[in-house]
Design goal:
The protein has 218 residues and is of the alpha+beta class. The chain is 42% helix and 19% strand. It has a four-stranded mixed β-sheet, sandwiched between helices. Strands 1-3-2 form a three-stranded antiparallel β-sheet. The longest helix has 13 residues, at 198-210. The protein is elongated and about 65 Å long. The model has no long low-confidence stretch (mean pLDDT 94).
Length: 218
């Protein structure tokens, strides 16, 4: 049965409908799902989201793909994306994402997934789609948007000047100064307009002063 299921489900991350469809030729497919879960052939990440167990996987599952699936619409951002791009040194345990729905946390067998809510008007700008093997992909903020999301999410920080912004970025967030100077100030300005954020306009001005060329992400 698992050999047939693996032919029908080629990816490592899949939802309930794909699993049910893969078992449609069997009587009482829901009972089959319960049996597969009990055997560890399939692992439930959260209700309706699954990966294959160790014995039947063909490649490592992607926590980034799972993050997009667990709560949608969403894209990876904040600390996880900043580390992904090498802008902060610390390894991030939780996969952090942004969504237009309410903020949520999911503790799963494969890790912690955290979702922060943003206004709908700020959601669509500054996204990239990363293609993986096996036809898989995930949405992630570009570096400028990941940093903007982080600054907006940190509501307890009062930043009024470029000097205060620089101190916050380099001392509090430990942002890589060289990477900061490579960001696109025009892109940050566009994001600031969508967020209607004075802090992000300060960020755009600071990046421009540090040498941002505007040749990065659009």
């Amino acid at each position: 049965m698992m050999e047939e299921l693996r032919i029908k489900i080629t990816g490592e991350e899949f939802d309930y409908h794909a699993l049910l469809d893969g078992l449609r030729e069997y009587d009482r497919p829901r009972d089959k799902i319960t049996s597969l879960l009990r055997q560890g052939a399939v692992i439930r990440v959260k209700k309706g989201i699954y990966i294959f167990g160790e014995r039947y996987k063909r490649r490592s599952f992607s926590t980034e793909v799972l993050a997009n699936m667990i709560c949608g619409p969403s894209y990876i951002s904040l600390d996880y994306a900043l580390h992904y791009y090498g802008l902060i040194p610390e390894r991030v345990e939780a996969v952090t994402s942004v969504t237009v729905s309410r903020g949520r946390r999911f503790s799963t067998p494969v890790g912690l997934f955290i979702y922060h809510s943003v206004p709908m008007r700020a959601y669509p700008i500054g996204l990239d789609q990363i293609e993986l093997d096996g036809g898989r992909s995930f949405l992630i903020a570009i570096p400028e948007k990941a940093l903007a999301d982080k600054i907006q999410a940190d509501r307890g920080t009062a930043i009024r000047t470029q000097a205060e912004m620089r101190t916050y970025l380099l001392d509090s967030l430990r942002i890589d100064s060289e990477g900061l100077g490579k960001l696109n100030p025009e892109t940050i300005s566009q994001i600031a307009d969508q967020y209607r954020s004075r802090k992000l306009r300060l960020l755009s001005g600071l990046v421009r002063r540090l040498g941002g060329t505007g040749n990065g992400h659009e």
